[in-house]
Amino acid sequence: MANSHIYSPFDEELKYLARRIAEMGGMAEQMVSDAVRALVNSDSALAQRVISEDVLMDEAEREIGDKAILMIAKRQPVASDLREVIGSIRIASDLERVGDLGKSNAKRVIAVQNTGVPRPLARGIEHLSELALFQLKEVLDVFSNRSAEKAEAIRRRDEEIDAMYTSLFRELLTYMMEDPRNITSCTHLLFCAKNIERIGDHATNIAETIYYMSTGENPTGERPKDDNTASVIQPVDQG
Amino acid sequence: MANSHIYSPFDEELKYLARRIAEMGGMAEQMVSDAVRALVNSDSALAQRVISEDVLMDEAEREIGDKAILMIAKRQPVASDLREVIGSIRIASDLERVGDLGKSNAKRVIAVQNTGVPRPLARGIEHLSELALFQLKEVLDVFSNRSAEKAEAIRRRDEEIDAMYTSLFRELLTYMMEDPRNITSCTHLLFCAKNIERIGDHATNIAETIYYMSTGENPTGERPKDDNTASVIQPVDQG
User: Fold this and answer.
1) Whether A107 and B78 lie within 8 Å, measured CB to CB
2) ipTM of predicted assembly, 2 dp
3) B50 vs B1: CA distance, rounded Å
4) pLDDT means per 10 residues in chain B (239 residues)?
5) 3-class DSSP state of A221
6) Does the domain at residues B9-231 carry the CATH identifier 3.40.470.10?
7) What are the boundaries of each domain within chain A?
8) How far is C-alpha B89 from the geometric centre of its chain's CA atoms?
9) A176 reaches B (C-beta below 8 A)
10) What is the CATH number of domain A9-228?
11) In the record, which residues are listed under signal peptide (chains A, B) (predicted)?
12) Which residues on chain A are in Cβ contact (under 8 Å) with B235?
């Protein structure tokens, strides 16, 4: 869109892609947020709704991908126009994965329902999810405004989510050690927390794609995609 | 490549992409296999090698992506030629993620080293990894030969990996319940097993991309990307 070519059907098509991506983004946010709410409130009806919504995300990704490829074939865009189209495919793919992760959390609601989620753990999951959702919301705003600098800032903030995830990881291990009856439900919560951490990664991927769309460059500097729990040997507090 | 256009520089470039993807595939297989070997043998030197190799995968993905976009801008391919180029971007991205998952498993070697991996669990992890590697190898073979039917068969076989993963998931929970001292290391092994299950998903993604490259269609029918452990309420055998 930054290009100086005259207003054209191609611009209309780009706008359509951007609108569909914004819609996917809104739905992804809702799914992630609802899944966590379903989890902490043992709300299996809400969980079911999240699960059934995932098919809409799959369809949207497919439609955006098909449309984008048709645009390349028909309009043969180059430079920033081409990057816009390729970037749209990538972002739709990341958002579809965010929807999957929301669905995956919703599917664990039943397994966790028997024991419920202890209050401090629920708060931890909620807080982690707020961080990831904030990241996702920011990145979708940046997508509307196309600021390469802001995209770069979001990319760096993923560390905050990783730190929160590591702390929750330790806390969950502690609960499991305190009472083996917590093991099954805490294992599910561990995977939920990991899913939320991955949602943060996808937001960061999207920030990188936006940076690329705006500048034609990939952002420099290492961005660790893996979490920091790999080396956790034992919880700080064994109760 | 299935197109009837005359032999051209574009064909040369497509061949180059295919060769780079095959190289990435070979490296991904090696990383996944080495990471599991490092895990079951507590071999931290091997783990370190896997971790350091990941940067080569990142570079390869970036190079393939840049090259592909340059090809689109310069050659303006349509139909199956365009699908080949777009498909290459997608496959490189899946292979890069497989490398990440191998690296993620390698990073857990230190955490598991203290307790070691009990023999039956080691065998379970090895078996799961063999299934995923077989799937990955098959899909890379199909990538060389472009058989849409074979790609479809691979896509369906992902269920075998999911079943094996669910069984390992239950077994790990049982170990944790039997002795809380197993909790930390078994949690790491759970994540390793999940990573391997995800490698199977990426192989399936690649099969879908190959199907799309060959036919221009997305494969039909639901393919569950999530695992089946979400509803595991308690292990079959509590010891």
Assistant:
1) no
2) 0.90
3) 34
4) 68 96 98 97 97 97 96 94 96 97 96 87 96 95 85 80 95 95 94 97 94 86 72 56
5) coil
6) no
7) 9-228
8) 16
9) yes
10) 1.20.58.220
11) none
12) 184
